[in-house]
Write a structure and sequence with these properties.
Layout (H helix, E strand, L loop, with lengths): L6 H54 L2 H6 L3 E2 L6 E2 L2 H32 L2 H13 L5 H17 L11 H24 L3 H9 L4 H12 L1 H17 L2 H6 L17 H10 L7 H31 L4
Antiparallel strand pairs: 1-2
Helix pairs in contact: 1-12, 3-6, 3-9, 5-6, 6-9, 7-8, 9-12, 11-12
Length: about 300
């Protein structure tokens, strides 16, 4: 028996499908816009909350006193809220971390990109990136129970809680970020540039330092800046291994406190809502937010300025 084809039904079915496609084409951009707006509104909400509470803090503590004060004693009758001890601890721990992470991470990236075979690179890079997945609290206990006792045998006068060991361990934690991003930047340099330099008689080391690294400079520097931002925002390692002494000092053998560690300490100490101590959390958080925002803007500027397209 021959099968009859109903043309009208086919046309009707096609029209229905086309209508659904047109509706989805109109709705999807609005759904995606809504999702994008959620993230923007969240950021605006965070900034608004920080600003509102920070303004309350500066009604009680002068702006100049907060940013130039060298004493931080948030408790007691004569409370003082100078942020310089926290800024010093944050900057010193970040500098120590980057002194560890930049040379090791860059050398690792050079080896993986320029010297390792493809098989070895595929084997080593995922192993290196596993370090980035270790919880920071594990790094904190590693700094406190292993690195500090080890350093005490080498560095005389090193306190049981100090800024040196968490700085070193933060550097170890950041190595995968620097190595991976730098290696990606170097690998994106066209092989024609390497082959051209080799054809002119350059050694492989000369090609690496005079051709590959300058060509990948924007990505390499951006990885450094992102590493610094990571170190500035780190919390658990410095909370565990650096202690809570609010010293204004440049001696790395002593205990110091960073901005993130202060926020953790005061939050855990049940600061009364509406007190100056409570509002100081937001003032420190706002300072940290501006700090990391500046670092991210610098990273974007460097990436745009030194970007080379092939």
């Amino acid at each position: 028996m021959e099968k009859t084809v109903n043309v009208r039904e086919i046309i009707k079915k096609n029209k229905s499908t086309m209508n659904l496609s047109r509706i989805s084409e109109k709705v999807m951009p609005k759904v995606l816009l809504g999702i994008a707006v959620i993230s923007i509104l969240t950021t605006i909400g965070i900034i608004f909350t920080l600003l509102a509470e920070t303004i309350e803090f500066f009604k009680a503590v002068p702006f100049i006193e907060f940013f130039t004060g060298t004493v931080l004693k948030p408790l007691g009758d004569n409370a003082q809220f100078g942020v310089l001890p926290l800024l010093t601890g944050t900057v010193i721990s970040s500098v120590i971390a980057m002194l560890v992470a930049i040379p090791i991470g860059l050398m690792t990236a050079i080896f993986l990109s320029e010297y390792a075979s493809e098989k070895l690179r595929r084997f080593l890079k995922p192993i290196l990136e596993i370090l980035a997945g270790i919880p920071t609290i594990v790094y904190g206990f590693f700094a406190f129970t292993f690195v500090t006792p080890l350093l005490q045998k080498i560095v005389p006068g090193l306190e049981s809680t100090n800024i040196l060991s968490p700085g070193i361990v933060m550097g170890i934690m950041i190595i995968p970020m620097v190595a991976s991003l730098s290696e990606d930047a170097m690998s994106s340099v066209p092989n024609a540039m390497r082959e051209g330099a080799l054809g002119l008689g350059s050694t492989k080391l000369e090609v690496t330092w005079k051709v590959v690294i300058p060509a990948a400079m924007s990505g390499i520097v951006a990885s450094f800046v992102l590493g610094i931002s990571r170190a500035i925002g780190e919390t658990m390692i410095v909370t565990i291994a650096s202690g809570s002494s609010k010293n204004f000092t440049f001696d790395v053998t002593q205990s110091m406190q960073t901005m993130t560690a202060y926020i953790v300490e005061v939050t855990g100490g049940e600061a009364p809502a509406g007190s100056t101590l409570y509002y100081s959390l937001y003032a420190v958080a706002m300072t940290l937010f501006v700090f990391t925002l500046i670092m991210n803007l610098i990273a974007q500027y460097i990436s745009r300025k030194y970007r080379e397209e092939y």
